[in-house]
Amino acid sequence: MKCLILGGGPAGVAAAKTVRKAKPDADIVIATEEVEAPYMRPLLPDLILGDADAEAILDPQGKDLQEKGIRVDRGRVAVRLDTAGRKVTFADGPEASYEVLLVATGGKPDVPASLRKDSPLIRVFDSWKDSLAIKELAANPGAAVVYGPGFLAIEACRALRKAKKEVVWIQPDLPRIGYPIAGELEASILDEVRNRGARIKEGDDIVEVREKGTDGLIVRTGKGEEIPCAMLVVATERIPSVGFASGSGLAMGTGILVDEFLQTNVYGVYAAGDCAEFKVKGRESRINFGWRSAIRQGQLAGENMAGGRKKFGGKQEDYFWALFGFSLADRVKD
Questions:
Q1: CB 194 within 8 A of CB 200
Q2: pLDDT in tens, 252-306
Q3: Which long-range contacts (CB under 8 A, 24 or more apart) does 82-90 make?
Q4: How far apart are CA 331 and CA 155, in angstroms?
Q5: Residue 225: helix, strand or coil by DSSP?
Q6: Could you give all domains of the chain from N- to C-terminal order, each with its CATH number?
């Protein structure tokens, strides 16, 4: 069995280890855009704060991949999927063939056009590398502007306030996909963020960013306010990273459509994690975001890739816990 997994996050690693357990002789390769070893994205705020070092945020799932005979090819960006020929083309050259494929490419931040500027003072809150850059900028004097609609922006505000930065959070409308924080929990969390000293501009947007000298920015909002700052952290929602699958024959919505077995409409191709969109009878399809959910999906996808018939289920209300855990409000208070 020749198994190719696109993505080295929690879903991809969990699937690889599950396939290995079921198929000791399988040829398993993980191809990932990341150049670092697998790490735990939820701990990136701790990296910014200095509460955790690079070693502390490594994903325990990924520490014994080599010992288990699972090859990890890092820095490989998929650009085309040929389901008829069962191969994937990468930006850096050699193609990879497969008998069974798992797409576990996760998501990428949806950055508005107004914020796509080549400036060292504008940082997207997305990866290990981004977090180290944010940490470095946070050591400089001056305010920080955080832009984003929900959870990631809350985490960015929390980290920057704890790092003693003056913070202005520009909070646009609710996320377009996923599960927004709402109701009493949202009100409580916003109060805690304010109590921590962050200024929140709800229902506003950024229409322009311009440089002020070499160490500052001016952020102009949709309501006409101009905010001077030393850094801008873009903490927008993550959209499924599936552009390479366009034209492949896979059924797609916002993500790659899968059934309850994590299977796509193409034989031998599965998807799991933040790029997998579940078809639900009688309702709109959904993407079950979150670290815990991704691990579980990866495990079930791995079992099914190896010949099983395990369903991914659960109640919709359970996904909030899968995404945030029980300690979201507590983390904001820390």
A1: yes
A2: 999 999 999 999 999 999 999 999 998 766 667 788 877 888 999 999 999 999 9
A3: 82/248, 83/248, 83/249, 83/250, 83/266, 83/269, 84/249, 86/268, 88/4, 88/6, 88/31, 88/244, 90/31
A4: 8
A5: coil
A6: 2-107+239-324 (3.50.50.60), 111-236 (3.50.50.60)
Residue written as token pair 């398993």:
28
CA angle 42, 125, 43 (to 5 degrees): 20
Nearest-angstrom CA–CA distance, 218 and 241:
31
Q: Do residues 237 and 254 touch, judged by C-beta distance below 8 A?
A: no
Which pTM does this prediction carry?
Answer: 0.86
In tens, the pLDDT along 204-245 reads 999 999 998 888 999 999 999 999 999 999 998 888 999 999
**Residue 33 backbone phi and psi in degrees, to 5:** -70, -30
At a CB cut-off of 8 Å and minimum separation 6, what does 310 contact? 261, 300, 303, 304
Please report which helix (H) or strand (E) contains residue 51, including its range.
none
Kindly give the interhelix angle for 10-22 and 291-305, rounded to the nearest 10 degrees.
30
Rounded CA gap, 141 and 175, in Å?
A: 31
Look at the block and give the residue holding tokens 């500052």.
216
